[in-house]
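Moderator note: this is an archived Q&A kept for reference. The question asked for a predicted structure of one protein chain; the sequence and the answer are reproduced below.
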Amino acid sequence: MIIPYTDIATDTLHNLIEYYILREGTDYGDIEVSLPQKVLQVQQQLENGDVVIVYSELHESINLMSKQQFLQQPIEPHSD
């Protein structure tokens, strides 16, 4: 399930983005990019709809992923 980034408190969203960046260990090539710059880039990707926040009921977890990745993943069963 996609969670709109606008539904998440600003501080929580910032922490979620930082956690995602630090966990992913994203490679920015030869140019060193600071953490605040990376956070801003991911924030812009969320605003553009290129990245989405996904809640997994099955795993009870939240994650950021590209919209394309989200659309390609198998549909997870509902836990009723």
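Archived answer notes: The chain has a mean pLDDT of 87.
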